[in-house]
Specification:
This protein is an all-alpha fold. The protein has 10 helices and no strands.
């Protein structure tokens, strides 16, 4: 069992560590660690590049989000193709280490994003219904408040609650709880800014 889990951990970390947001911003000549919230996650990439390059920059941020989701889904999904005894343990291990890799990438001096998109990608594979409910909570909160961080925090609460209520496998429900707590902890600076009223909003521009 040790070898399959080690393999899942290594593959998961290397997938998660791929710094798509940083690479995409770099294509635009921008060091994302020096702009906005100085976070290489898709939200900051979209905000910064969108402000600098308009729709083209926003599409780049959407691409960063999609790629971050994909690496989480891949880390959690590929063990299924082995059809082995330890596939579900490998799925959990792969997703956890993908999240660690995303948040502490070896390619960017162990700096990274908050892990929302990467977590969502993996959880779509493991807990599709609970993740769908969390996504609805994210959408409702975002459009009501225009705060991406608040929407992510609410979704991080809804996800494990939905997993437990819906009777998902215990191991997956525990994973959802751990990931939810991790995402919330990674949002501590955002929580402080929300309480202080200084958090950045995504405000839709009105055409003149």
């Amino acid at each position: 069992m040790l070898i399959p889990l080690t393999l899942a951990a290594v593959v998961g970390y290397l997938l998660g560590a791929l710094p798509f947001g940083w690479l995409i911003a770099r294509k635009f000549g921008v060091n994302i660690f020096e702009h906005g919230s100085k976070n290489p996650g898709a939200t900051n990439v979209k905000r910064v590049l969108g402000g600098m390059f308009g729709k083209k920059g926003k599409r780049a941020g959407d691409l960063a989000f999609a790629l971050d989701v994909l690496k989480g889904a891949t880390a959690a999904g590929w063990p299924l193709f082995l059809c082995g005894t330890y596939s579900w343990q490998m799925q959990i291990t792969g997703l956890i280490f993908a999240l660690i890799g995303h948040s502490f990438s070896c390619w960017t001096r162990f700096k990274g994003g908050k892990g929302v998109a990467t977590s969502a990608g993996g959880l779509v594979v493991l807990l599709p219904i609970a993740t769908l409910l969390a996504a609805f909570a994210w959408i409702i909160t975002f459009y009501a408040s225009r705060y991406v961080s608040l929407a992510s925090i609410v979704a991080a609460f809804v996800l494990p609650a939905a997993a437990w209520v819906l009777g998902a496998p215990t191991a997956f429900s525990i994973l959802a709880t751990v990931l939810g707590v991790f995402v919330i902890l990674r949002h501590r600076p955002n929580i402080q800014r929300l309480l202080a009223g200084t958090e950045n909003k995504f405000v839709k521009k009105v055409a003149e």
